[in-house]
Amino acid sequence: MTDEEERREVALLLRRLNVELDAVGQRFADLHGLNRTDVRALVAIMDAARRGESLTAGRLGEAVDLRSASVTALVDRLERVGHVRRVRDPEDRRRVGLQMSESAMAAGAEHFGGLARDLTAAMEGYSADELAVVRRWLEDMTAVITRHSRGS
Amino acid sequence: MTDEEERREVALLLRRLNVELDAVGQRFADLHGLNRTDVRALVAIMDAARRGESLTAGRLGEAVDLRSASVTALVDRLERVGHVRRVRDPEDRRRVGLQMSESAMAAGAEHFGGLARDLTAAMEGYSADELAVVRRWLEDMTAVITRHSRGS
DNA sequence: GTCGATTATCTCGATCGTCGAGATATTATG
DNA sequence: CATAATATCTCGACGATCGAGATAATCGAC
């Protein structure tokens, strides 16, 4: 196999990985009776919580790229099944903070945290040098992809 | 940084890459007035065409996980804007083959092929050994992820 | 302080994608 | 042949998203 062919195969492997990674989110959605937007929203809220922040409705809309009307409906759905709570911000009472319920947080940690744990475990066989190569490669690929995902 | 932290960071980089890769598809959708399902369908049809096959409506439904009613609507949309053509199979006249138009094929090649080209180009600086590490890592990660995307 | 502009969220009505149930047409089977 | 199985389509319903506009709270200029 030529070097060029090898590079193309690696690119294909990356694409296949991407498909499977999306399927992980889809599976979580199926298991919990949610749609993909709801899952993306929960992940965004969970990420913010891990950073010690509490997303407002508006910031959530930016994170998942939805208009305010859709965010209201989205939060209604998540609140109805008990995954999040609306908490009016006492500093600025126009704002609505979003807090994940314990159960939703636990379910998310179980599902996505479990994946993260297995991924890092699968990397234990790699030397520091090898991981450095992988990291550099990921950064390079992400840079290229980001250029394509925004302007050309 | 400990080895464990480094592994976690690499996992986070992979997740970030995944987000950007999804955004590439979203951008193609925006540019061409399509939704994400339509893009996934076009990609599936394009992949099949590259393998010399012609997807039927049913197989397309399996590829993008839609019921037959939705596939009919999907193909209606794509046909209406001239991206695909329905071609009744003369062997089995119940079946409907899907052929991509030249313009749609060109647009897809331009967008996704351009990304693939840039990705492989960005790998030119990597030695065969380094690429082998990356490839092994991708295969390992994909195996873990696939286990999570199907049964746990 | 007061009033208009700005900001954050929500309500309402409309549109579009998806689906289940069932219809239609074609092919396989006994 | 008659019947079952297969591939797609039609129809009606539902749900996610959106634009326009309403409501409520904060900010800024005076």
How would you characterize this protein structure?
Two copies of one chain form a homodimer. Chain A has 152 residues and is mainly α. Chain A has three domains: 1-33; 35-100, Arc Repressor Mutant, subunit A; 101-152. In chain A, 72% of the residues lie in helices and 7% in strands. Chain A is built from six helices and two strands, in the order ααααββαα. The first copy, chain A, has helices at residues 3-32, 36-50, 57-64, 68-80, 102-122, 128-149, and strands at 84-88, 96-100. A two-stranded antiparallel sheet of chain A has the order 1-2. In chain A, strand 1 (84-88) and strand 2 form a beta hairpin. In chain A, helix 1 (3-32) crosses helix 2 and helix 2 (36-50) crosses helix 3 (57-64). The radius of gyration of chain A is 19 Å and the shape is elongated. The relative contact order of chain A is 0.08. Chains A and B meet through helix 1, helix 5 and helix 6 of A and helix 1, helix 5 and helix 6 of B. The first copy, chain A, binds a DNA duplex (30 and 30 nucleotides) through residues 35, 37, 56-58, 66-74, 77, 92-96.
List keywords for this structure.
homodimer, 152 residues, mainly alpha, Arc Repressor Mutant, subunit A, DNA-binding
Average pLDDT number of chain A: 97
Specify which chain pair forms the largest interface. A-B, 53 and 53 residues
**Which series of helices and strands of chain A comes N to C?**
HHHHEEHH
Shape of chain A: elongated
Number of domain modules of chain A: 3
**Weakly predicted, low-confidence segments of chain A:** none
Largest sheet of chain A: 2 strands, antiparallel
- Calculate the terminal CA-CA distance of chain A, rounded to whole Å: 31 Å
User: What share of the residues of chain A lie within helices?
Assistant: over 70%
Whole-number radius of gyration of chain A? 19 Å
Oligomer: homodimer
CATH topology of the largest domain in chain A: Arc Repressor Mutant, subunit A
Main β-sheet, spatial strand arrangement of chain A: 1-2
Beta-strand portion of chain A reads 5-15%
Q: What's the CATH class of the largest domain in chain A, please?
A: Mainly Alpha
